[in-house]
Amino acid sequence: MADTTYDLVVIGSGPGGYVAAIRAAQLGMNTACVEKYPALGGTCLNVGCIPSKALLDSSEHYAFLKSDAAAHGIRATVELDLAAMMRRKDAVVRELTRGIEGLFRKNKVARIVGTGRIAGPGVVEVTGEAGKQTLATERILIATGSKPVALPGVAFDGRRIVHSTGALSLPEVPQRLVVVGAGAIGLELGSVWLRLGSEVRVLELLERALPGMDAKSAATLQRALEKQGMSFTFGAAVRGARVEGDRVRVELSAGGATQEEACDVLLVAVGRRPFTEGLGAREAGVRMDERGHVLVDDTYRTSVPGIWAIGDVIPGPMLAHRAEEEGVAAVERMAGLAGHVRYDCIPGVVYTWPELAGVGLSEEQAKERGLAVAVGTFPFLANGRARAMGEREGQVKILADAATDRIVGAHIVGPRASDLIAELAVAMELGASAEDVARSVHAHPTLPEAVKEAALAVGKRAIHI
Ligand code: FAD
Ligand code: NAI
User: Fold this and answer.
1) List 61, 163, 321, 444, catalytic entry
2) Cα of 44 to ligand 1 centre, how many Å?
């Protein structure tokens, strides 16, 4: 017998789940959000986007003062207080997760702490500290996110062999950090520890870094990271790893030979997998693919009527902003509105320095599709604001349909690429042409002028290069 009846029960409070719950409440649904951890916000706020960016920002300040401040005429004696840096990161996380508690109160979303299990159509059983309760609901939204993938023969111990969560809280700076995987986590968290003084080597199975992103832009970023001291071994297959005292021995094969790497800490960052353990979704008849993703139609309905799913748990790029947009679109669809996500306009960012950001098609994807594109690029070397900041690396690249001039992709390596890509994502959402961006007035001197110049370069009329 259910204690309460809801219009919607969301299982999971990550950026997908909590945003969906708030939007549903705005639309008048009596909504509950079930989260098994005591803090709201999911992977993103607790052990993902936010703590990683807090450490990236702190370590950026440290590296600037240590290496680059002198060029600005600033002499500084710098000392690292890692414990204080970690406390600051934890405080940022705490403030933001508490912020969601406030948003739930404001929007009258019922917060239910405990592990949710779909017990049948319209029934969610929650097991928490206070025991079991049963929620009756018209609709269920699965937003249970993802977990790190483990490598065979490499057991996490949370101290020497870690995934991203451990690498966000190391108690001291490792002398040598080996990272498996040159993806977003490997390069971002590798950068944090590199800046704080570790020797960092990245082992990547493929022959390039960031396989999902524009190849030339990823290569530019790789060179910039190599200049900072990060080293890469490509075509490296890790066979196993063992802890011996204070060291980790990593066995790998690369270039046809078996090698061993020794380090203090091994970070395994080879991707994440959808998380549905204990959820009861499969038992309820929800269809999944062979990798454990919940399968949905284009309105986020699963194969079982009354059950929807969004975010990392369904196929697609594992990004917080994608999960948020899907959360909004799914509940708007439930309410009979026209919620929709433009999957070709979702930006992706790697928050290294320089940053790498992309939206839409890469040059390779345009080629694969047989789409003729005009490409305009503009280097930050020729941008006044970047030079004033002391930034010389990277460029903006814009791809426009050669026939219509409509922007189909954009890729930026450089300072604050994460902020700069927003203009081009909006341009693509609005179906803008390169000329539209090129003829828009951009303030001087700013980094976005490099975007304007790249748009001008599509029509071969950049001014400053
Ligand atoms: P999640 O955030 O994983 O949330 C799922 C929630 O469901 C969790 O809180 C979990 O405890 C809860 N849950 C699961 N099962 C149950 C159950 N049965 N009952 C109750 N609760 C349950 N993305 C970006 O866009 N930008 C970034 O900068 C970025 N940085 C990242 C850095 C790191 C180190 C990591 C690991 C990830 C990063 N991501 C980033 C990815 C981002 O965190 C995810 O894409 C995003 O969190 C997915 O949101 P979600 O709501 O689908 O799932
Ligand atoms: P990823 O999928 O981005 O990268 C994993 C990398 O590991 C790939 O380059 C892959 O080729 C490599 N790899 C796979 N198996 C390997 C093996 N056996 N040996 C060596 N290399 C191997 O996954 P990552 O970095 O773990 O991130 C997980 C998810 O979190 C991603 O989907 C990412 O989108 C998201 N994330 C997003 C961030 C952002 O938006 N800034 C930051 C961090 C994570």
Assistant:
1) 444
2) 5
Rounded CA-CA distance 406/398 in Å is: 10
Atom of ligand 1 nearest to the CA of 278: 18
Structure tokens given for 280: 């009861």
Any idea which ligand is nearest the CA of 323? 1
Domain with CATH 3.30.390.30 in the chain: 345-458
Nearest to 414 by CA among 395, 398, 389, 388: 395
- Domain 161-270 sits in CATH 3.50.50.60: yes
pLDDT per position as a tens digit, 148-167: 999 999 999 999 999 999 99
| Most ligand 1 atoms within 8 A of CB, residue of 46, 49, 123, 270 to mutate | 49
Query: 125-139, pLDDT tens digit by residue?
Result: 999 998 999 999 999
Question: Which overall architecture, per CATH, does domain 345-458 show?
Answer: 2-Layer Sandwich (3.30)
In the chain, CATH 3.50.50.60 sits at: 4-148+273-341, 161-270
Considering the entire predicted model, what is its pTM? 0.98
Please tell me the number of the ligand nearest to residue 125's CA.
1
| CATH topology assigned to domain 4-148+273-341 | FAD/NAD(P)-binding domain (3.50.50)
Kindly provide the b/e burial profile for residues 374-396, where b requires at least 16 CB atoms within 10 angstroms of the residue's own CB.
Answer: bbbbbbbebbebbeebebebbbb
